[in-house]
Structures are given as C-alpha cells and as structure tokens.
Amino acid sequence: MILGSIASGSSGNCIFAGSDTTSLLIDTGVSGRRVTQGLQAIGRKPEEIHGILITHEHSDHISGLGVISRKYGLPIYATPGTLEAITSCKALGKLPEGLFHEITPWQDFQIGDITVTPLPISHDAAQPTAYRLRSGAKSMAVITDLGTYGDDLIQQLQDLDVLFLEANHDIHMLQAGSYPYYLKQRILGTRGHLSNEDSGRLLNEVLHDGFRAVMLGHLSQENNYEALAYETVRLEVDMADTPYHADDFPIRIARRDSVSELIEF
Which tens digit of pLDDT belongs to each residue from 114-131? Predict the structure, then answer.
C-alpha cells in the first residue's frame, strides 16, 4: 500500500492512499490544479483515481472537490450528513448526483481491492469521519480533525501498519497567540483539534511490534512548528509506559505547501 500527502494543514488538505491497483484521495481541500500537480509528482494521474473519500465539509477539505470531481467524473464517498452539507455549499458549483455515494459509519465498503472503514470522530461538522483502509494483510488509517477520542476509535486503530495522525497545535502557543477567545476554545474543545501532546498519546495507544510509520499532519500554521510537533510526539512516545520508543519507527511530517515523501509498505 501507499500513503502520501499532497497538502495538509489549516489552509488545505488532500491525502493520497492506494494500492498497486486502486488509487484514492482523502479530501480535496486545495485547488484542482494543486491536486493534479500533486498526483503527477507521485507518478499518478487524476483520471486514475477510483474515488474521493470526504472526511467533512469544511472548506479546507472540500474547496477543490467541485472542479476535480466534475472534470474527471470521480466518485465521492461521504456520510449522509456530510453529503447534505456538501450539496448546500454553493462555492463548489453543481455536482452531478450520480457521483455521490452515501456511506455509513463503522460499515465497511469496497473500492477496488481496498476495504474502507469510515470511523466517526468528534469534530464541529455535520457528520465527520476518519478512515481505515485495508488491502490484503496491510492496513493504514487517516485520522485528523478530532477534538477527542475514545475506546471505540482506539479499538479500530489496532494492528495498523501506518498511521496518518493529526498534530494540530501546541497548547501553549495557542493559548498565548492572537486568536480570539472563542476560536481558542473551539480548537481546544472536544469537537476541535488534537494537540501535539494528545497526538502522541493516541499514537501510544496503537503501537505494536509490527507498526511501521506515522505521518503527522494538519499542523496549524499559527500555533505549531514542524520541529515542535515532531519532538513533542517523540517525547510522548519515549515517556509512555510501553515497550516502544520513538526511534523504533519513522515519524514524518506532512507539509501544507509541498508533497510529502511517500510511505510504501
């Protein structure tokens, strides 16, 4: 399987996930041109995409959806609440109804040789989801835009090979920063975003002997730094009461303005 970030951050998100025979996008929150250029950079073409999995309707996850899906006739997969919110978004333009595929949280569905499990998450959107993907004996998950997590999500993330995980903000930078109070409370709340510390703690819950790599994503431009997210997550892993250490597997950072190095496994 293959995992790579075309863009990740508060300004736009688009993740590539696939196998040897199936190519998927998770969100299209950047322009159609950037999606196309990002796919070309990793040796893929937009017309080869088998489906777009949408996590939720916020603009940094769907702003390029109208252009890219119309141009190439790409199927769109999302929960009923998210689909309703998408169709109400006039900025996307008219989307052919035949492109929409309604999915159900916790219920597996198949795209090519990839089994997709939509995982409900806590975020201030209509019906947001994260995704676990499996092909044969290999599996990965893309988990962003959640303010908290529980045992149900942790259970679904066991035995992963690779994890794409939100590390949105440093709590102290956010609290001392220029954001208005209501926005700080939204981000810090249970329907907001994971801090660097919480990202490391969630990672500790899913580590196992066969774990291969984690990519940290959706970093805030105003309230985080790549090095800070990296070192904070490493520290959480090293300090945890587990047999694992941060040097046991690669920790990579997905950038907002460039395509990441692919994780192939």
Answer: 999 999 999 999 999 999
For 12, 71, 186, the CA distances from 183, given in Å and listed in that order, are 18, 36, 5
| Residue that has been written with the tokens 């431009």 in this structure | 221
Give the span between the Cα atoms of 195 and 79, in whole angstroms: 26
**Which residues, in sequence order, are CB contacts of 20 under 8 Å at separation 6+?**
none
Which pTM value belongs to this model?
Answer: 0.97
The single-letter code of the amino acid at 10 is: S
213 token code pair: 């790599």
Type of residue at 46: P
Could you please report the per-residue DSSP string of 121-145? ---SSSS-EEEEEEETTEEEEEE-S
Rounded to whole angstroms, the Cα distance separating 78 from 48 reads: 20
Residues of the chain with pLDDT under 70: none
